[in-house]
């Protein structure tokens, strides 16, 4: 499989190249040249496979020219062996229609671990292969986090050879648990940076660095944000895992996805393209509802970010939406580049008819405010005794409001462990969720973090002074 840019003006790369590159050189995002698909019989045969084997089956068509089937299974076994639940992503039932897919049993308590544990191993694998001239490879990862990507990425690469990681987070806008999960990792290849500004400001700086030749000529800059295709590929697996348990491929399943950067729900779109019978993908947003407006009436226009109790969804610009728009518009890279240039200059764009109609066939959307979020946390607790986190609660609110036919199971993706956001959970239920033992003495450990102004040049200079130049 090779990978092409959504903006049509970057070289096609194989899986290894797309994984190490992250963003394409024309500013676009890499997508597979075509969608591999499974027959109904092939999907039926996957029922009951252990998670690591299912992951190997789903990922193999995407990686085939870069990894053998045997090596891929070794990597999926290592990545998912670190999860605290034997099922890796267990399903729980609320009532006759509503289900919860728990994606937070990894080391840093959010669904990001499912993808990043795999990505850390892929980086190590590919960087261990020497360049054609025999020199060793290294990678400077630069990322922005609204909270959970940062800790999951840092856990996945801390101490690994060949990789330095620089992680930007918006100062004061991530929870204490989220911040400490990043800043207490003292491995010398880990660099945390708190910037004055929002997540979108941090993400814009990261994107700018990828297109800054003064930086890219000196350093191999790589991405761990969900602009990296390998992350989305790994996330496709749990859609299959959940649907197979609920009767797929013989019965369709709907999913409700707490959405920020549109990575997780795009993985659901990929699962549908690969043949999984998905009745509907419900895009759940908080009051930062650009995606809800885009899907409901074609208006993709960024406002200002309102901080909420679900900070990983406090996003106005959803990078991965471009992958969907590209696919729905006949994969026309020239048109996509023009559409995105318009968005970048005016912060607004209208979806084309093909994009609106294509999206409407599979996606619906809903928005939850603070009261609806708290109500969903209480409903889950009353229905089953489960404490759910604020992001998951927004998904559950949308799932229950979506009006899906009663014969179709609706699975809400539980994207974070409730103990990551204990205050909101306690306010809604009167019960304070406890951190699982596997995170250890998080609140007693030393923190290390630089603070920088919301200024690109300051961040670039900080990275340049500490990163390992290209060989
Ligand atoms: C990252 C994150 C999201 C949003 O996922 P996207 O792939 O960016 O849409 C939702 N919930 C939690 C807890 C997250 O960490």
Automatic annotation (TrEMBL):
Its cofactor is pyridoxal 5'-phosphate. Gene3D superfamilies: 3.40.50.1100, Threonine synthase, N-terminal domain. PROSITE patterns: DEHYDRATASE_SER_THR. It catalyses: O-phospho-L-homoserine + H2O = L-threonine + phosphate. Its EC number is 4.2.3.1. One of its GO terms (molecular function) is threonine synthase activity. Keywords: Amino-acid biosynthesis, Lyase, Pyridoxal phosphate, Threonine biosynthesis. Residues 98-359 form the Tryptophan synthase beta chain-like PALP domain. Pathway: Amino-acid biosynthesis; L-threonine biosynthesis; L-threonine from L-aspartate: step 5/5. InterPro entries: Ser/Thr_deHydtase_PyrdxlP-BS (IPR000634), Thr_synth_N (IPR029144), Thr_synth_N_sf (IPR037158), Thr_synthase-like (IPR004450), Threonine_Synthase (IPR051166), TrpB-like_PALP (IPR001926), TrpB-like_PALP_sf (IPR036052). Residues 3-80 form the Threonine synthase N-terminal domain. Belongs to the threonine synthase family. This is Threonine synthase. It comes from Novosphingobium ovatum.
């Amino acid at each position: 499989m090779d990978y092409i840019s959504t903006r049509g003006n970057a070289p096609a790369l194989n899986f290894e190249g797309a994984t190490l590159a992250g963003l394409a050189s024309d500013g676009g995002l890499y997508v597979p040249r075509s969608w591999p698909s499974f027959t109904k019989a092939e999907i039926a045969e996957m029922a009951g496979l252990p998670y690591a084997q299912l992951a190997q089956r789903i990922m193999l068509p995407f990686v085939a020219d870069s990894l053998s089937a045997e090596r891929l299974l070794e990597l999926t076994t290592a990545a998912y062996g670190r999860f605290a639940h034997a099922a890796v992503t267990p399903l729980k039932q609320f009532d006759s229609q509503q289900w919860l897919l728990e994606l937070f049993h990894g080391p840093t308590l959010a669904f990001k671990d499912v993808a990043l544990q795999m990505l850390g191993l892929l980086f190590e694998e590919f960087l261990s292969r020497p360049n054609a001239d025999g020199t060793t490879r290294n990678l400077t990862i630069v990322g922005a986090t609204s909270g959970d990507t940062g800790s999951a990425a840092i856990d996945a690469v801390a101490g690994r050879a060949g990789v330095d990681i620089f992680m930007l987070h918006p100062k004061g806008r991530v929870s204490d648990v989220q911040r400490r999960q990043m800043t207490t990792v003292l491995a010398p290849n880990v660099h945390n940076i708190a910037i004055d500004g929002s997540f979108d400001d941090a993400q814009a700086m990261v994107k700018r660095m990828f297109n800054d030749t003064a930086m890219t000529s000196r350093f191999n800059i790589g991405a761990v944000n969900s602009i990296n295709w390998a992350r989305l590929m790994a996330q496709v697996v749990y859609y299959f895992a959940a649907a197979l348990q609920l009767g797929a491929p013989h019965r369709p399943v709907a999913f409700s996805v707490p959405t920020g950067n549109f990575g997780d729900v795009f993985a659901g779109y990929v699962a549908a393209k690969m043949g999984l019978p998905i009745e509907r993908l419900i895009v759940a947003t908080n009051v930062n509802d650009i995606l809800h407006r885009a899907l409901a009436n074609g208006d993709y226009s960024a406002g200002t970010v309102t901080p909420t109790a679900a900070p990983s969804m406090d996003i106005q610009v959803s990078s991965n939406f471009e992958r969907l728009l590209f696919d729905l518009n006949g994969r026309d890279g020239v048109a996509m580049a023009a559409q995105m240039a318009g968005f970048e200059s005016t912060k607004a764009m209208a979806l084309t008819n093909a994009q609106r109609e294509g999206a409407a066939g599979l996606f619906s959307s809903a928005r939850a405010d603070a009261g609806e979020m708290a109500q969903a946390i209480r409903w889950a607790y009353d229905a089953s005794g489960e404490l759910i986190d604020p992001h998951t609660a927004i998904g559950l609110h949308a799932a229950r409001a979506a009006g899906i036919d009663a014969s179709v199971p609706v699975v809400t993706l539980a994207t974070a462990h409730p103990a990551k956001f204990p205050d909101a959970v306690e306010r809604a239920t009167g019960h304070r969720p406890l951190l699982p033992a596997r995170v250890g003495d998080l609140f007693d450990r030393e923190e290390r973090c630089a603070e920088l102004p919301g200024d690109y040049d300051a961040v670039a200079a900080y990275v340049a002074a500490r990163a390992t130049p290209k060989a």
